[in-house]
Design brief:
The complex is a heterodimer of chains A (503) and B (168). Helices cover 73% and strands 0% of the residues of chain A. Chain A has helices spanning 2-12, 15-33, 39-50, 55-72, 74-80, 92-100, 104-137, 142-158, 164-179, 204-220, 241-247, 249-264, 270-284, 297-312, 314-320, 326-337, 345-349, 351-382, 387-406, 410-427, 432-455, 467-502. The radius of gyration of chain A is 23 Å and the shape is globular. Chain A starts with a helix and ends with a helix. With 168 residues, chain B is mostly helical. Chain B has six helices and no strands. The chains are: A mainly alpha (503), B mainly alpha (168). At the A-B interface, helix 9, helix 10, helix 19, helix 20 and helix 21 of A face helix 1, helix 2, helix 3, helix 4 and helix 5 of B. Chain B: This is Tripartite tricarboxylate transporter TctB family protein. Chain B: It holds the Pfam family TctB. Chain B: InterPro entries: DUF1468. Chain B: The chain crosses the membrane at residues 6-26, 38-58, 102-123, 135-155.
């Protein structure tokens, strides 16, 4: 193990990795702090850059940018009451209330400090959980993989804050998109409509850039510009954080644990972790009446939770190629591109690369403290940048970045098309994250499904025969039927009440 | 762009049915029970079923209004919408400007070159978002060069030179 650790150190201590990580951190902090630009968008726009980096440097940029962006979303949340990323939305009101009480330093300091602590807890979970799970996963056959992938897709739909039926429809749409091209069991052109550009299928990355970045620029066209930040001078950012850590150590631990669990669940990312943790903090607090008036307790728990979920979201991604959240979905694309194909064998064959990923996460979270403090101090200047200056540049990056992916203009067309699809879906309550998961996982699901069917000679019984497969099948089918069951139950309830009252 | 559930649901039914039919007519792999046709059939049927459920309002009761998404809450939402005169049916079409400009990039980049095309895109987007020419013009003049420096020079992405080659 020590040898692997030394190898991992050697992998990350190159100038390329160090510079890439530092640059990505600054980039993540800036993008995350700009309202309307999410951490996912920051990561998606970074992908074209990763093409030109070594595998480790590429992963380093994703790790650093995503961790930093999730934290820096807290900055405009606290100062303007406009969360920079959806993950900070859960406690933006609370942080803003603290700013109004003159405690902006404490709120922002708690953001930095507990994000870093949460991030490191997430890495520890990745280090502890992933290897034993990889051992188990090595015995998985295509049947288990099929159910696991399906369960991953279903989880994404269950946790969506919209109608589960719409979420499932979004997932099917994504799977349908993944059907396009000639990469299928028969090797025949499928849904290509005679267009040679579609033979290679739809790449997940331009689709992601489209739904997250272009759709955001489209929304900006119709929404009013946020107000500028009032100038203020900050005192010491980290003062009082150690006292908070001692006072709220249990809340912090609970936030970390909840974040880790939510991160590991496929499809539920940092946004969900922050909402759940903030709600839990309020529910179990000794002083729930203080929530909403500028009370730091919820910030501690939710701030730790959303960053913890970032690292733990990599557990299913690295083990099974099933993304924990949309950022991990992008990371999977990069992993495949760089020859680090996700799967349990990654832990045995490329152990040093795995350790390098762990180390990078730890370093990113440590770097977050000084860089985060610096960012808070310059936030006033960055937040002055008008949206009409940022959005055009973002769009230009979308065009060039998507062109760079395949060096052809079809990438740009894909980005434009998915921008429209993402915009329309979001406007009508269809969660785009479910579709993204469908696109990313489609090929894997189909491969596992068809290989299993060929192995079983067309029979579906073997899908339920192996014990682990049977358990996973029960969970996946349960998740699929859950909305229907709740709907039936709700329909029955008024009838029962009516019968009871008539007696 | 908010459409009634019956419209989006019906669209999904049609799309699902078309996908299932498209899968159905694909040639099977000889000697193999399953081929490229099975997956689209399953997905198409699933999509059509979901579409039907949406048309009939199943699951609608689960829907929550989006809470606090960036840019749309609090003070921002309280501010009056810009360019009140343009409010109306056509106002929503502004959202289509970004994808339209991306398609413009596809058509024009090879002929005009990256710098000119990018400058036009930046200028149009910036003014559409309310920037005055004092901001939009320098932004359109400088940002294409900055992006070209990063992507074209440092990352070696082959960006078309067209009518205006870059100095590097």
């Amino acid at each position: 193990m020590l040898k692997t650790l030394i190898e991992a150190f050697a992998l990350i201590s190159t100038w390329e990795v160090i510079i890439a990580m530092f640059a990505a951190s600054v980039y993540g902090l800036v993008i995350g702090s700009l309202p309307g630009l999410s951490a996912t968008m920051a990561t998606a726009l970074l992908v074209p850059v990763t093409f030109y980096l070594s595998p480790i440097a590429a992963i380093a940029t994703i790790v650093a940018a995503s961790s930093m962006a999730i934290f820096s979303g807290d900055i405009p949340g606290a100062l303007l009451r406009i969360p920079g990323t959806p993950a900070s939305a859960a406690y933006a009101d609370e942080a803003y209330a603290m700013t109004r009480k003159g405690q902006a330093e404490l709120a922002l300091g708690a953001g930095v400090w507990f994000s870093a602590v949460g991030g490191i807890a997430g890495v520890l979970s990745l280090m502890i959980l992933a290897p034993p799970l990889a051992e188990i996963a090595l015995s998985f056959s295509t049947f288990e993989y099929f159910w696991l992938a399906l369960l991953g897709l279903m989880c994404a739909t269950l946790v969506a804050r919209s109608s589960p039926v719409k979420a499932i429809a979004g997932m099917f749409l994504g799977l349908l998109v993944s059907c396009i091209g000639i990469e299928n069991p028969g090797g025949v052109p499928r849904f290509t409509f005679g267009l040679t550009d579609l033979f290679g299928g739809i790449e997940p990355i331009p689709a992601l850039v489209g739904v997250f970045a272009v759709a955001q620029v489209m929304r900006a066209m119709l929404t009013p510009e946020p107000p500028p930040l009032p100038r203020r001078k900050f005192g010491s950012i980290m003062a009082g954080q150690w006292r908070l850590t001692k006072l709220y150590h249990w809340q912090m631990t609970r936030g970390n644990i909840v974040g880790i669990i939510i991160g590991v669940l496929p499809g539920a990312g940092a946004d969900m972790a922050a909402w759940v943790s903030y709600a839990m903090s309020k529910r179990f607090s000794k002083e729930p009446e203080k929530f909403g008036t500028g009370h730091v307790e919820g910030l501690v728990e939710a701030g730790a939770s959303n960053n913890a979920s970032i690292a733990s979201g990599w557990v299913p991604s690295l083990l099974f190629g099933i993304p924990g959240d949309t950022i991990a979905a992008i990371a999977i694309g990069v992993l495949y591109m760089k020859g680090l194909n996700p799967g349990p064998t990654l832990f045995t064959e490329k152990a040093s690369s795995m350790y390098a990923i762990y180390l990078m996460f730890i370093i990113a979270n440590i770097m977050m403290i000084p860089l985060g403090i610096a960012m808070i101090r310059v936030a006033a200047y960055i937040l002055l940048a008008p949206r009409s200056a940022i959005m055009p540049v973002i769009m230009l990056c979308c065009a060039v970045g998507s062109f760079a992916i395949g060096n052809n203009m079809f990438g740009v067309v894909t980005v434009a098309a998915f921008g429209v699809i993402g915009y329309v879906m979001e406007a009508n309550g269809y969660p785009v994250a479910a579709m993204v998961l469908g696109i990313v996982m489609g090929t894997m699901v189909e491969q596992a499904f068809v290989t299993s069917l060929i192995k079983s000679d067309g029979s579906i019984l073997p899908f339920f025969e192996r014990p682990v497969a049977a358990i996973l099948a029960a969970m996946a089918i349960g998740a699929l039927l859950w909305p229907v069951m709740v709907w039936v139950w709700r329909k029955m309830k008024p009838v029962q009440t009516a019968v009871a009252t008539s007696r | 762009m908010r459409l009634p559930d019956s419209v989006t649901g019906s669209f999904l039914v049609v799309l699902g049915a078309a996908a299932a039919y498209g899968g159905w007519i694909l040639p099977p792999v000889p000697g193999q029970p399953v081929g490229p046709n099975v997956f689209p059939l399953v997905i198409g049927s699933g999509l059509a079923l979901c579409g039907l459920a949406i048309v009939f309002g199943i699951g609608h009761s689960f829907e929550e209004e989006e809470e606090l998404i960036p840019l749309e809450d609090g003070q921002a939402a309280a501010a009056p919408p810009p360019q009140g005169k343009l409010e109306g049916k056509l106002y929503g079409l502004r959202a289509l400007l970004p994808p339209a400009l991306l398609l413009f990039y596809v058509v024009a980049a090879d002929r005009l070159g990256f710098i000119i095309t990018a400058a036009i895109m930046v200028y149009v987007t910036s003014t559409a978002l309310g920037a005055k020419w004092k901001l939009a013009l320098p932004l359109a003049a400088l940002s294409p060069f900055a992006i070209h420096l990063i992507f074209g020079k440092l990352l070696r992405v082959p960006l078309p030179a067209g009518l205006l080659p870059t100095p590097w």
